[in-house]
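Practice problem 4.
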């Protein structure tokens, strides 16, 4: 039997306004999300995952 190690686990909810039409991307394992609508939001967020074994 094969087991996959790729598993998604919720760590924390984003403490920002709900949005659509945002941008998101990752660089070297760090995720970024920002801007969007409604109302032309101008915030930007960074997520750096914790290291796991």
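Answer key:
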């Amino acid at each position: 039997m094969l087991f996959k190690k790729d598993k998604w686990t919720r760590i924390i909810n984003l403490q920002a306004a709900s949005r659509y039409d945002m941008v998101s991307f990752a660089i070297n394992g760090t995720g970024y999300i920002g801007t969007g609508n409604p109302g032309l939001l101008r915030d930007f967020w960074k997520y750096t995952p914790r290291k796991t074994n």
